[in-house]
Amino acid sequence: MTLITLSAPYGAGGSQVGPEVARRLGVPFLDRAIPTAVAERLSVSLDEAVDRDESAGGALTRMTVWLGQVGQAFGAPGAIPVETVEEEDYRRATEHVLRDCASTPEGAVILGRAGAIVLREHPGALHVRLDGPIEGRIRQGMAVEGVDRATAERHIDETDKARRAYVNHFYRCDPREASLYHLVIDSTAIPLDACAEIIVGAARAREGAAALA
Questions:
Q1: Is pTM, for the whole model, over 0.85?
Q2: Strand ranges (DSSP E) for 43-151?
C-alpha cells in the first residue's frame, strides 16, 4: 500500500499537489472526505463537522482565540475552557478516521490533520511537508486562489497561527519541525507539478525499500 501524509500551510499548494500525487499513484485523496467520516462517527451534521475540522479557517481562528485566552497556545498552564471537551471529541474522532484510512490495503494521500504526528508509527507511511517563505506563499496563494494580496496575507496570518496552535495544543510540537517528515520541499521555489513528481518518486522508492527489508 502507498500511504502519504501531506502537511502544507496556506500558499504551499497542498490542495493542488495532494490530488495530483494521488492520481499518479492510483490511490484516494483524503481531504474533504475526512469531515464526512468524522460526522458519521460522532453522529453530528456534516456542517458541524466541517466547521470543527482542522482545515476550516473559521474554526481554527476561533480555536486560536480561546487557546490564547487561557495561555494554552504555547503550552503555558491555565484553565481548560468548556469548549475543549468538544474539541477533544473532534480531535479523537479525526484520529480514528486517519488510522482507519491508514489500515486500508489501497493506501491514500492524506492532507493535513496532523497526519505525520498521528500516523508517525505507521511503518510504511511517507510523511511530506510542503512549505516556503511567507512572501512566496503569498504570491502562490494569490495565483492559485485568484485573490488579491490583502486577502492572501490575511489567510496566511490567520491559518499559520491557528494551525500551529492546534498542533502545539493537542500534540505539543510545531508542525514546521523538519524531523516530523521524511521529505520537506519548498513548493514556492519548485513548480507544483515537479513537487508531485518528487513525492511520487519518494513514495515508490520507500515502497521498494520496504519490500526488500
A1: no
A2: 108-111, 125-131
Concatenate the DSSP letters of all residues of 158-208 into one string: HHHHHHHHHHHHHHSS-TT-GGG-SEEEETTTS-HHHHHHHHHHHHHHHHH
Kindly list the distances between the CA atom of residue 80 and the CA atoms of 51, 54, 86, 165, 186, in Å, as whole numbers in the listed order: 21, 19, 12, 14, 36
Q: What is the pLDDT of residues 35-60, one digit of tens each?
A: 788 888 888 877 777 777 765 444 54
- Cα 88 from Cα 85, distance rounded (Å): 5
Contacts of residue 114, Cβ cutoff 8 Å, sequence gap at least 6: 7, 54, 166, 167, 170, 171, 175
16's grid cell:
493542488
Long-range contacts of 147-150 (CB under 8 A, 24+ apart): none
**Best CA proximity match to 129, nearest among 1, 9, 19, 34:** 9
